[in-house]
Amino acid sequence: MKKRYKFLLGLLVLLLVAVLFRTTFYRMAGDWLIVQDTLEQSDAIFLLGGGAFDRVDETAKLLEQGLAAKVICTGALVPDILKVLKVEYMEAEVSRIGLVDNYNIPGEVVDTLLSGTSTREESELVLAYCLEHDFKTVIILSSSFHTRRVNNVFKPLLEPEGIKVIIHGAPSSQYRESEWWKFEAGMIMVNNEYMKHLYYFLKY
Fold first, then answer.
1. Using an 8 Å Cβ cutoff, are 112 and 93 in contact?
2. With contact defined as beta carbons under 8 Å apart, do 180 and 30 qualify?
C-alpha cells in the first residue's frame, strides 16, 4: 500500500511539474528542431520542395543580399491544391514561378530539379548537381522546423565530398516558431517533424 501511495504521489508531482513548466518544454521542443548556420557567400541556394510561399520569400531575400547568384528549386511532388485545380506543376516549378513572376528574379538565375519526393532523395540530387557544377559552398533552404532533419541528411552526404553546407530556415507565415503550440498549423508541423525524425532514425 505504501509503494502504491508513493508511486501515485510521484506521478502527481511529475504531472504538476509538467503543467507548471509546459511552456518551457514546448519551446525547447521547437528550438531543438531548428538549425541555422551563419550565412556567407555561396555558389548557389538550393530551395527544397514544399512550403513554397515561405521558402520562396526567404530565398528572394537572400538573393537581394547577394549571397548567391544561382537558385536551384527541387521537388517532384505536385501540391494537392494544384491537383484539385488540375494544374500539374511540380513543387520545383511552383517555386521557380514564384521567384520569377512575383519577385522579378531573372529566369536564367533559377534552375529546377524536377525530381525528389523526400529529403533523402533531394540530398542525392543536390550532391550530383554540386559535383557536376563544381560547387564548393551551398545554402540549403527549407522551413525552419525542417532544418535539423535537413542538416542531418545533407551534411553527412555532401561535406565528405568537399562541399560546405549552410543550413538556413524560412520562418513560417502561419505561426510563430517561438510559440508554435498556440497555432494549429504549428502543432501539426512539430508533431509531423518529430514523427519524420523517428522514421529516418528507424530507416537509416
1. yes
2. yes
| Alpha carbons 69 and 48: distance in angstroms, whole number | 17
CA distance 194 to 201: 11
Q: Tens digits of per-residue pLDDT, 48-97?
A: 999 999 999 999 999 999 999 999 999 999 888 788 888 888 999 999 99
Residue 188: helix, strand or coil by DSSP? helix
Cα four-point dihedral sign 122, 148, 54, 134: negative
- CA distances 7 to 12, 15, 17, 21, 77, Å, are 9, 12, 15, 21, 50
Distance of CA 18 to CAs 21, 22, 28, 118, 193, Å? 5, 5, 13, 35, 22
